[in-house]
Design brief:
Layout (H helix, E strand, L loop, with lengths): L2 E4 L5 E5 L5 H8 L5 E5 L6 H11 L4 E5 L3 H6 L5 H8 L4 E5 L7 H11 L4 E5 L3 H8 L7 E5 L5 H7 L2 H6 L1 H7 L3 H5 L4 H21 L4 H13 L7 H8 L3 H13 L3 E6 L12 E5 L2 H7 L12 H19 L5 E6 L5 E8 L2 E7 L11 H6 L3 E6 L4 H5 L3
Parallel strand pairs: 3-6, 3-7, 4-5, 5-6, 8-10, 12-13
Antiparallel strand pairs: 1-2, 8-9, 10-11, 11-12
Helix pairs in contact: 1-2, 5-6, 9-15, 11-15, 13-14
Length: 392
C-alpha cells in the first residue's frame, strides 16, 4: 500500500512506502522458526507489513490469501503428509486472512510441529476469529505481534520531524489510521467507514450481538468520558443495560483494538481509589468519529482529554514496539489528588502529568511521593512530548 508524505498545508509531495517499526522485528524473528501471528484492528496494514517482509525474503516463498475459496480448499482435512507435498520446497509461507481457514489453529499447529524448515506468517482482519482459533492450539509455537495505527516515530522516520510536528493539531483530531493518513482532505468519510467496518464486521458479525445499537451507545458514552474515570454501573444506567453486559462489550472492544483500559494504582494509601478505571481509544480519529466532532483543536473543550489520549496511546505503541514489560496505571485519591499516567518497571514508578498548555505547571502530590519514594515525576507538554513518544 502506498502512503503519501505531505506538507503542513496537506498538499501531496511524493508517494512513499511507510516502513513499519515491526518489520525489523518480524524479519529478525524468522530465525526462531515459530509461527508469527500479527494481530491488530481492521485496515491497519497487517497485509502490507507482511508483504514487505515477504518481498525482502530471498529464499523460495509462497503467499496465500485465505479469502480465496481454492486456497481454503487446500487446507481442508489438514495433515502432515498433505502439507509436506504442498510446501516442502518453500522456506516462507504467508497466510493472509488466516481466520478464514476452517481449521486455522490445527493447521498452523501441524505446520509448526512437522515442517521445521518452514517460516510461517499468519495475518487476519478479524482479531476475534484468529485469536480464538489459534490460542489453544499454538501454545509455545507462535510469536504474537500487535500492529497499531501509524506512530509518531514511523511518520517522523518517513517524512521529517518538522513535517510531523507541524501536523500535530491535525493528528489530535483525525488520528493515525493508514487510510486517514493516505487521504488528506477526506478524513471524515474514511473514519466513518473504518468505524462501520470495525463494528459491523468484527463485532456485530463475529460476536453475533443481539443488541448492536447498544454497542454504539457504549462507545459514544466512552468517547464522551475520555480521560475520566469510568464506572460500569453508571455506564449501565446511561445506556440502559446491566453491568455484566457492559463488562462483556468493553472486553470485546479491547479485543478488537478499539479501546484499552488503565487501572488505578493502589498499594500504600488507604484513601486511594482501588477499583477505578479509565478507558482510552487507540486512535483519536476513531474517538472523534464516534461523536461526530472534528472541530479544530483550538476550539475544543475536550482538547486536554484528546492530548492525554494521544500521549498514552503513542506511549503504548512505543512500549509494545520496544518490547518493554511493565504495568500501566493512573493514580487518584478520594481527596481528588491525581496523576494522569504511571509506568511501573520492577517496582520503580515513572509518573507523568499531561498538560496541553505550554505555560501550565504541575506538581507531584505529597501523598504520592511519601507513599512511593521510589519514583520519578515528569510533566509532558507541547515542549517535550517528543521525548515521551519517540523511540529511544
Amino acid at each position: 500500500m502506498t502512503f503519501f508524505v505531505y506538507d503542513r498545508n496537506l498538499s501531496y509531495i511524493r508517494p512513499v512506502m511507510i516502513r513499519r517499526i515491526l518489520q525489523k522485528q518480524l524479519e529478525s524473528d524468522l530465525s526462531r522458526r515459530k509461527v508469527q501471528v500479527i494481530f491488530g484492528p481492521r485496515q491497519i496494514g497487517k497485509s502490507t507489513l507482511s508483504e514487505m517482509v515477504f518481498n525482502n525474503f530471498q529464499d523460495k516463498k509462497l503467499w496465500l490469501n485465505a479469502d480465496d475459496a481454492e486456497v481454503r480448499a487446500q487446507f481442508e482435512n489438514p495433515g502432515g503428509m498433505k502439507f509436506e507435498k504442498l510446501f516442502k520446497t518453500y522456506k516462507l509461507l504467508v497466510i493472509d486472512e488466516a481466520q478464514r481457514l476452517s481449521n486455522a489453529g490445527l493447521t498452523l499447529k501441524i505446520i509448526a510441529d512437522q515442517m521445521k524448515h518452514l517460516n510461517v506468517i499468519a495475518t487476519g482482519s478479524s482479531a476475534f476469529e484468529l485469536n480464538d482459533k489459534i490460542k489453544e492450539s499454538m501454545a509455545g509455537r507462535a510469536l504474537e505481534y500487535k500492529l497499531f495505527p501509524f506512530s509518531v516515530q514511523e511518520m517522523v522516520d518517513h517524512s521529517s520531524l518538522f513535517d510531523e510536528t507541524s501536523l500535530l493539531e491535525h493528528r489530535l483530531v483525525y488520528g493515525y489510521y493508514p487510510e486517514v493518513v493516505n487521504h488528506p482532505g477526506d478524513e471524515k468519510r474514511v473514519l466513518r467507514q473504518l468505524c462501520d467496518s470495525m463494528l459491523y464486521k468484527d463485532l456485530y458479525t463475529v460476536e453475533k450481538l443481539k443488541k448492536p445499537y447498544l454497542l454504539e451507545k457504549i462507545l459514544q458514552a466512552l468517547a464522551l468520558q475520555l480521560g475520566s474515570e469510568v464506572s460500569y454501573n453508571e455506564l449501565a444506567n446511561t445506556v440502559g443495560a446491566d453491568k455484566e453486559t457492559i463488562e462483556r462489550y468493553i472486553f470485546m472492544l479491547e479485543q478488537a483494538f478499539i479501546v484499552f483500559r488503565l487501572s488505578a494504582l493502589s498499594r500504600n494509601v488507604r484513601t486511594e481509589l482501588r477499583k477505578s478505571k479509565k478507558i482510552y481509544f487507540y486512535d483519536n480519529g476513531i474517538r472523534n468519529s464516534l461523536i461526530s466532532d472534528f472541530s479544530p483543536i483550538k476550539l475544543r473543550q475536550d482538547r486536554g482529554a484528546l492530548w492525554e489520549n494521544f500521549l498514552i496511546s503513542e506511549r503504548i505503541k512505543k512500549i509494545s514496539y520496544q518490547n518493554l514489560y511493565g504495568n500501566l496505571f493512573f493514580w487518584r485519591t478520594r481527596a481528588q489528588q491525581e496523576i494522569d499516567y504511571i509506568e511501573d518497571y520492577d517496582g520503580f514508578l515513572n509518573a507523568y502529568e499531561f498538560k496541553y498548555n505550554r505555560n501550565s505547571k504541575a506538581s507531584l502530590p505529597l501523598t504520592f511521593s511519601q507513599a512511593y519514594p521510589n519514583h520519578r515525576f515528569s510533566l509532558v507538554d507541547l515542549t517535550n512530548y517528543l521525548d515521551f513518544v519517540l523511540m529511544e
